[in-house]
Amino acid sequence: MNIGIIGGSFNPIHIAHLIIADRFVDQMALDQCVFVPVSQSPFKQGDLALAPAEDRLAMVRDATQQHDKFRVSDVEIQRGGVSYTIDTIRHFAEQHPGANLSLLIGSDQAIEFVRWHSWQEILREAQLCVVRRPFLLTPEMEWRTTETLTIDGKTPVWINAPLLEISSTEIRRRVREGKSINYLTVKSVRDHIAERGLYR
Questions:
Q1: Does residue 47 surpass a pLDDT of 90?
Q2: For a disulfide at 4, which of 33, 117, 148, 155, Cβ 3.0-4.6 Å?
Q3: pTM of model > 0.85
């Protein structure tokens, strides 16, 4: 079984997340692509813009329900506290013995990946996949990143997806300013944000 893992704050989940995940499924021939909202990112502790975990989880579930290979896991939220990716990978390895696990990150995260807790163990226990972000890496920087994140001869896989300039930060800002977020995320997520008064 091929299982893909996408972790993140999803604060909120948006169209680019969904398109990237769809391409991840295609390129890695995934049987499942699991979205894992964090409880608390080690790099964003004390983030006052972070919506409650139950809201972020609900929005991810709403946004992903129409894709037959998308799944959602609340393992990090149930665990509580700071979320470490290595623990989540080991959780899925225990749940699905013998499965091939792939972890998807953005190229912005790839640059900082050596700061992640147990980063070398992550690379040994899962196939790292990196999706390009708009205007971030030159070909030379991409090559250096690949070299740095190659462990035991296993190199990262670069995922090709449309370079969409959509971010959760932009969505939160537009909500705060009373502007439309149509087309930036799916209707169910827009409705949830409005009903719960998030990001105002």
A1: no
A2: 33
A3: yes
